[in-house]
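Q: How would the C-alpha cells look for this protein?
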Amino acid sequence: SVVRQEGEQTRRHFDIVAESLRGDIRLIAEGHVTLQQSVDGLRTELKGDIAKLDRRVTRLEAART
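A: Here is the predicted structure in C-alpha cell form.
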C-alpha cells in the first residue's frame, strides 16, 4: 500500500540521517579527544614554567636577605 511504501521510505531516510549523525558525532568526539590532549599538554607545560618561576623567585628572595 501507499502508506506502507511511504513508511519504508521514511524509515530509510531516517536511517541515512542517523548514520550521518553518527559520523558527525564521531568526528566531534575525536576532535574533543585531540583538544583535551592539547589542553593537557599545555597544562603540563604551564606547571613546569610556574615551578621554574617559583624557584627563581625563591632564589631571588633568598639572595636579598
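Helices lie at 2-64.

The chain has a mean pLDDT of 97.

Upvote if useful.
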